[in-house]
Amino acid sequence: RTSLVSDGLCARHCSAEQLAAGAAIPSHTNRCCCDCCLCGCLLSRMPLDGSSMFRKWIKSGAAAAPSTEDGAASLGRCSPVPAGGAASVGSRASKGAHDASESAEALQSQLEKLEEECQKIKHQLARVHNHAELSIEVVDEDLTLTRSRFSRAAPGATPAGSLLPSKEGSIKRGAGARGASAGGGRSTAGGVASSLNSSSIASMSSFGPRMSYAVRPAPSPGAAASHAPTSAKDLLAMVQRGRKRAQYNSRVDSEELAALTGNGAVTLLPRGGVHVRTRHGPVQFGIPPETIKDSLQLGLDVPKVYVVGKERFNLKFGTNTAEFEFPAYWNFFIKGDKTTVVCAAAAAAVIRQVMEEVLEGPAEEHLHQDDEYSPFVDDSIYAARPDLLREIGYFKEPRNGRKIEADTLLQFVEFACSEELPAGHLLARMAFDDGTIEVIDRGAEYDVIVDDELVATVPDWLSSAIADPPHILMPMATAVGDAIDFEAPQFGITVLGAADGFTAAGTTAGFILWMRGRGILVDPPAHSAHYLRRNGISSRKITHVILTHCHADHDAGTFQKILLEQRVTVLTTRTIMAAFVRKYALISEMNYDFLQRLFCFHSVKIGEPVHFQGGSIKFFYSLHALPCIGFRAELAGKSIVYSSDTYYDPDGLAALQQRGIISAERCASLCTDCSVQQADLLLHEAGIAPIHTPFDALAKLPDNIKRSIRVIHCNDARAAESEFEKVQPGFEHTITIDTEPPLHAEANQILQILLVTDIFRKFDVESIVDVLSVITTRSYSAGEPICKAGDEGRFLRIVKAGIVMYERDGARPFELRHCDHLINGSLLAVIH
């Protein structure tokens, strides 16, 4: 399959006369393989032995050039000829048919030569495929826009009941659907249909509307000019910082690190960053996720002064190294003080925008809750929809006389030129009651000067460096075999982290929801993708992520998985997704439109089930400082409910209803239908009100609900004092809900493997049935060779479970995991 497509055999570029004469066939591997490519059409239905089938088709004299007038309409119309017979490739092919039988041998020889280059261009072809999917353009009259790669709806299609952008930029329901009126209520008549226009576009997919361009953030002056190299010298310095970051491992001695750590005032933090002790309080360079946990675990004071490096994002690990949320929360809510940010002016503008987004929530024009309910949802559920603007406003109310906003949590000290310093050096000075701290940026290093005394010199690249491998608090398997032998349950959860953002031990809350052997990551903690790989869990087993809300302890791992693995489907509401993209476009300095194309966005509807692996997931809006969703997952009559971050307390909710912050229907729903539903497993968060649910409120629930509760997102001490069991992270603590196996379980499992295997992903039903008929399952012992050099390559092997080691010609061996495939090699061995 690969060799034929990549060889560039395309009737659009080779006339029948050229083919018959055995002329050299032009290569066009840099073109999209679906651009009227005859071989691409054939191979969409071609069995594994595609080369021989194509030769039989050539010998039959059916090779012909489709007319160019029909453009891409020829795609998919050609069918392979069964062995022993000739086939017609449609009316256009028959018109241009030419007798090529005389040159069959010449063509066959040409094919054999081209097949020899298959391995060389295989990786290039994969890149071409990816690029083509990212770059398909849709032209509709005078409107040109780029279609996102996972969109399956036809360009310009307007399905009934879909969401359409109106001329005013608002989103209204399509004809026949229940829509929101101007006052926020429902429309009594049919919906309103409108045409696409350049000022308001909603890219549609089979999963509902993608991100509306109406929620695109205005570019900030600071973001536009942020740290872009302006000279060859700056560019060289940036490259050097990148090289040092790529080689960094804080657990390996080096001369540079030894000189730094030899200073008793300096500590390299496990997650990244440098902690410098001074008489006026510590100063930290670099702020990776969960950084305050490092200080708490090491017995260090949590700093109030942080220095932002020249790069605020570590692309290698997809990590924000200027994550100020939890240091700011700690200093404000726990210590009652501000956090000082030392940075360039451009970085200050971006950090302020990010903090405003997470503290004050989305602006009113970015809240779409009225449109996020299914048009078929029950009236009582629709009546209980939240007023997100009022709810967010409640959580922003002053606490202890202090407003909760960016300016009350953060204060900025910007680097600036100084006459006291040489040209090119920048100074940031902070005054205290009993002295000063100065940070001098000397280009490649930072000097920390306390009361005119040099305390430490920190290399600039360390402020954005993450150790390789990254520091992970999630428990690793006790042995390699334990991880590889892990069998995903039919229905259950594996907890990756169960702590809150302020607990020293453990990582932040997140877990895997397993349904029929495939997983969905729910708010994955930072470095979850790396952790799963180290434990032998293939990324092909976990291709979906549920994003509940956009606090740093819940969304950092989601962005990492998107960048490191791609092919990720994110399930959340349009409001939350818009906030996520706005936030990480600022953090990563990536183009807003490009960022949306890195993943598939499944826009969930409240009250409407999302079907997955024979089960369903229904979402609800919880009550939190930011728009936040929980869910109920059902499979084979069993259920798991996750509260997500929420405030549940009947007395407190009644008080909010009296103040008009929530409606009576919303209050009743929060008390009965959302986070405290009866289920086989109720995974509920707990913490300090009103941001979280107090343990006392959970203790008052009926016994039939309490018996299924397991708590998460809390520290061990508070959980131990309560009557509830806290979930434990790790694969050995996986919670399994017993369910009946599905019908045709073995065939279903094989189909799931084929669906995520590259070469079978686009096969039609008929071809898949043919493949199923020739599949066999084989098991191998640990260390047993599967095949060796010189063995006949009669089989296409796909890894179902375990790890396969591939060694060839003395090269460094590499691993093949779940759904990876192979044909032959010098030496392969299976490790269980």
Could you characterize what this model shows?
Helix 4 (about 50-60) packs antiparallel against helix 6 and helix 22 packs antiparallel against helix 23. The protein has 28 helices and 39 strands. The chain is an alpha+beta fold. It is globular. Strand 8 (about 275) and strand 9 (about 285) form a beta hairpin. Residues about 1-100, about 130-225, about 480-485 and about 825-830 have low confidence and may be disordered. The chain has a 7-stranded mixed beta sheet. A 7-stranded mixed beta sheet has the order 26-27-28-29-30-31-32. The chain is about 30% helix and about 20% strand.
How helical, in percent, are the residues?
Answer: 25-40%
Number of strands: 39
Q: Rough shape?
A: globular
The class by helix and strand makeup works out as alpha+beta
Rg estimate, integer Å: 30 Å
> How many angstroms does the end-to-end distance come to?
31 Å
Count of discrete alpha- or pi-helical segments spanning 4 or more residues: 28
Strand order of the main beta sheet, please?
25-24-23-22-21-20-33
Strand portion: 15-25%
Give the overall pLDDT as a whole number: 76
Low-confidence segments, given as residue ranges, are 1-100, 129-226, 478-483, 825-832
Taking the sheet with the most strands, its summary is: 7 strands, mixed
